[in-house]
């Protein structure tokens, strides 16, 4: 049986997730700034259509600032799925924008992309910009997943043991 995810566009301006290449693991998620733009458009002198206004509309993320960027998308994931929101490598390496998040299978609201600007300059976000990748993962979601043990020796020993961060080396 083929896994399918239902997607609802809250606005006609929202973009469906799309893969950047055949073997890409992540589905590109784009911003939908139409709701924010409409508020500004209604305050403005309307010498252009809303579609033209939206095309030029952007928001600013200042250094060290966190914003939740709307996507206009709602999804229905199967109970054994999660949507892992990951940064796009180019945006992170060039601009310092880090996108993160988890969409749980029982969430039905609009997906918002949490972004922090780790760079040292303002970054402009435009409507329809590819901001993040959504990676769909299988999850083990049963309530009795964790089995508590009352003695550390009941955990199966491994070669790594308790060696933590950096213990496996760089090379």
TL;DR of this structure?
With 171 residues, the chain is of the alpha+beta class. Helix content is 14%, strand content 33%. The strands form three sheets. A seven-stranded antiparallel β-sheet has the order 2-3-11-7-8-9-5. It has a two-stranded antiparallel ribbon with strand order 1-6. The chain has a two-stranded antiparallel ribbon with strand order 4-10.
What does this molecule look like?
The structure is a single chain. By secondary structure, the chain is an alpha+beta fold. It has a single domain, classed as Distorted Sandwich (Deoxyuridine 5'-Triphosphate Nucleotidohydrolase, Chain A). It has three helices and eleven strands. It has helices at 34-43, 50-56, 89-95, and strands at residues 6-9, 18-19, 27-30, 58-61, 66-70, 73-76, 81-87, 97-103, 112-117, 123-126, 130-138. The strands form three sheets. Strands 2-3-11-7-8-9-5 form a seven-stranded antiparallel sheet. Strands 1-6 form a two-stranded antiparallel ribbon. Strand 2 (18-19) and strand 3 form a beta hairpin.
State the secondary-structure class. Answer: alpha+beta
Shape: globular
Number of domains: 1
CATH topology: Deoxyuridine 5'-Triphosphate Nucleotidohydrolase, Chain A
Taking pLDDT < 50 over at least 5 consecutive residues as the criterion, the unreliable ranges are none
Topology:
Blueprint: E1 6-9, E2 18-19, E3 27-30, H1 34-43, H2 50-56, E4 58-61, E5 66-70, E6 73-76, E7 81-87, H3 89-95, E8 97-103, E9 112-117, E10 123-126, E11 130-138
């Amino acid at each position: 049986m083929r896994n399918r995810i239902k997607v609802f566009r809250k606005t006609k301006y929202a973009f469906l997730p799309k893969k950047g290449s055949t073997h890409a693991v992540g589905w590109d998620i784009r911003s939908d700034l139409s709701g924010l733009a409409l508020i500004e458009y209604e305050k403005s002198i309307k010498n252009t259509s809303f579609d033209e206004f939206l095309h030029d509309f952007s928001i600013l993320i200042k250094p060290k600032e966190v914003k939740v960027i709307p996507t206009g998308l709602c999804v229905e994931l199967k109970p054994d799925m999660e949507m892992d929101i990951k940064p796009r490598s180019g945006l992170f390496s060039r601009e310092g924008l880090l996108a993160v998040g988890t969409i749980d299978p029982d969430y039905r609201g609009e997906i918002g992309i949490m972004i922090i600007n780790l760079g040292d300059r303002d970054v402009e976000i435009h409507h329809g910009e590819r901001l993040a990748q959504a990676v769909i993962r299988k999850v083990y979601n049963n309530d009795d997943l964790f089995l508590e043990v009352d003695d550390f020796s009941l955990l199966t020993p491994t070669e790594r043991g308790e060696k933590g961060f950096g213990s496996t080396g760089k090379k």
